[in-house]
Design a protein that fits this description.
Helix 1 packs across helix 12, helix 5 packs across helix 6 and helix 7 packs antiparallel against helix 8. It contains 12 helices and 36 strands. A hairpin with a 2-residue loop joins strand 22 and strand 23. It is globular and about 75 Å long. By secondary structure, the protein is α+β, with helices and mostly antiparallel strands.
């Protein structure tokens, strides 16, 4: 199995818990079977445990470390707990009668009662309302139902639309998330008692975790994301004093029995670090996670939290953090590459970057441009391990955090708005100057970008005609058409695009990401666009139009199509996309 296939397959496995010897994981074996695999302590084989996927919903309950299936039968709800050791336990409860038809289950989340027992909050809708809404009528909206074994059902009708993210029995509130397209979600904590004098309290931010009347939320993202403790009763926000170390917060969960400690992941200079944070004092203890690269917080149970690490040089790994800060580690499927050194975070002029040095002589360079734009380059298995192959072929890789990236403050993020050409031109000049100082000329340098990074790769060929060329995967190639499509789905995208791009200008150069301007690239530059025909984020048709225009102008451009979406949807597509991008770069740089 190739590295892209191996990596894709591992990413489809859900980290559930930790047993002696390593991680407990689950994956879909087929459309009807969930397979749980556990480590094999002392070399003793342990057979996988299969769960039949039936009913209306299947949820992993982290508090009890079990999968829970839900089946609606009229006004009756059947609940089955599937423990990780293979034991089962079931119970049933009666639901209130649907006003007009039958209940249809839309979603379910785990809750904890004031006494610490596990419950479940269901979002249901009357099927009759669904039918009338499809026919153009008005539905009455969602109903929320709290169920627990041996307890009566509690019903709540939300005052406003939104997805349920938390039901807090002790604080007597539910928290709803209103997704607002490109802008920060609005979190609304509304009392369960509609007659209560207590008002609805709100905050903008990303929901992370909640219990016992308090919640962890991420505010001020993406410019300067900060961790906040949100009081669900009065709506007050408190940012822990110093916070755990440098860099913006990426994720956090409560850890242990209460709300006094949190496991926090922060990103600094392209690498993630984990910290144990005392929420009262702000004191932070760094945890032992060297070589992890990017850390994805996958699960948080009363026994601890699980992290998935991925790095270009160190491969993949699993980490388990106990409430006292003890760390256990197990290797993932992708092994380390001992011939490679971790990347160096540096500044090329004023532009931050991660620089990966090949183990031998440098013969060429690739400047890699992340998507977003409001994202950042991290030490992770970017492009499904492609950096590894490039490095072993003598290609130095620069992961550029161009102006407009997140992670370096709000001013850095906003600086290129409506003047991307000037801002990216400075970034590119600084990068090419640094490469020349290393003995790599522009004609031995290619740009590689995905999504918006692909757009910048195409723009780079306009700004620096002596570059070898570019490979752009799923790029945005017509900003006006892209903005119009986004606004058709959500009108709030009109303001988002207008703030960042000069859509109103009659000049293609001022619009920047316009077919007329992007095809003013150098006449000898090799440019390859790789795009999925089923991409619903950026347009395959726009890329086809752009390449056709370039070829009419005599430019050596080409389009490689595959059947994927914006990103590959299965292991075969991951391997194919990886191979197409690799081969395109080899052609652009004339690699042996």
């Amino acid at each position: 199995m190739s590295l892209p296939e191996l990596f894709f397959t591992e990413r489809q496995k859900h980290l559930l818990s930790w047993a002696e010897g390593g991680p407990v994981r689950a994956h879909m074996e087929d459309a009807e079977t969930l397979r749980i695999t556990s480590p094999t302590p002392h070399g003793a084989p342990r057979a996988p445990h299969d769960i039949a996927v039936t009913g209306d919903a299947l949820l992993y309950a982290q508090a009890s470390e079990s999968f829970v299936s839900f089946a609606l039968d009229g006004d009756r709800l059947d609940v089955t707990h599937h423990a990780l050791d293979g034991t089962r336990h079931g119970w049933s409860t009666a639901l209130p009668t649907a006003p007009r038809g039958r209940w249809a289950l839309q979603d379910v989340i785990e809750t904890r009662s004031a006494a610490g027992a596990t419950g479940f909050a269901l979002t249901v809708v009357d099927e009759q309302d669904e039918e009338e809404e499809e026919e153009g009528g008005e539905a009455e909206g969602d109903t929320l139902l709290l169920v627990a074994e041996g307890a009566g059902t509690v019903s709540h009708r939300p005052r406003a639309a939104g997805s349920l993210v938390h039901w807090d029995e002790g604080a007597a509130v539910v928290v709803l998330r209103e997704d607002r397209g490109p802008f920060q979600p609005l979190l609304r904590a509304e009392p369960l008692d509609v007659d209560a004098a207590r008002p609805v309290v709100t905050t903008e931010g990303r929901w992370l975790d909640g219990r016992d009347g308090e919640a962890l939320v991420l505010t001020d993202a993406p410019g300067a994301p900060r961790l906040a403790l949100w009081n669900l009763r009065d709506g007050s926000l408190r940012h822990p004093d110093a916070g755990p170390g440098p860099g913006p917060v990426d994720d956090a969960r409560f850890i242990g029995a209460g709300t006094s400690s949190a496991l926090v992941v922060r990103t600094y200079e392209g690498t993630d670090r984990a910290w144990l944070l005392d929420l009262a004092s702000g004191a932070a203890e760094p945890l032992d996670t060297p070589g992890a690269g990017r850390l994805l917080l996958r699960v948080a149970t009363p026994r601890g939290a699980g992290l998935y690490g991925l790095s270009t040089t160190e491969g993949t790994s699993y980490r388990w953090i106990s409430p006292d800060g003890a760390v256990e580690c197990a290797p993932g499927a992708v092994p380390p590459d001992p011939a490679l050194s971790p990347p160096t975070h540096t500044y090329l002029g004023t532009t931050p970057a991660l620089v990966y040095e090949p183990p031998g002589e440098t013969t060429a360079a690739v400047i890699a441009l992340h998507g977003g734009p409001e994202s950042q380059e991290r030490d992770e298995l970017r492009w499904d391990g492609l950096y590894r192959e490039l490095l072993h072929r003598g290609v130095l890789v620069v992961g550029l955090d161009y102006t407009g990236s997140s992670g370096y403050g709000d001013a850095f993020l906003r600086r290129p708005w409506k003047d991307w050409e000037t801002a990216f031109g400075r970034d590119l000049d600084a990068c090419l100057t640094a490469l020349r100082d290393r003995g790599v000329t522009a004609d031995r340098t290619a740009l590689l970008g995905g999504s918006f990074g692909g757009s910048l790769a195409l723009l780079g060929c306009v700004l620096a005609e002596d570059l070898a060329g570019a490979v752009a995967a799923a790029p945005l190639t017509d900003i006006r058409r892209q903005a119009a499509r986004a606004a058709a789905d959500d009108a709030r995208y009109t303001a988002w695009f207008s703030e960042r791009y000069d859509l109103a200008s009659p000049l293609a150069r001022q619009r920047t990401f316009d077919p007329k301007h992007l095809t003013t690239a150098g006449p000898k530059q090799r440019v390859v666009i790789v795009h999925g025909e089923n991409d619903r984020v950026t347009s395959f048709e726009d890329s086809s139009t752009l390449v056709a225009r370039a070829r009419e102008l005599g430019l050596p451009w080409s389009l490689t199509a595959d059947a994927s979406g914006h990103v590959p949807d299965d292991a075969d597509e991951a391997r194919f996309r990886h191979d197409q991008v690799r081969d395109a770069l080899a052609a652009v740089l004339d690699l042996p």
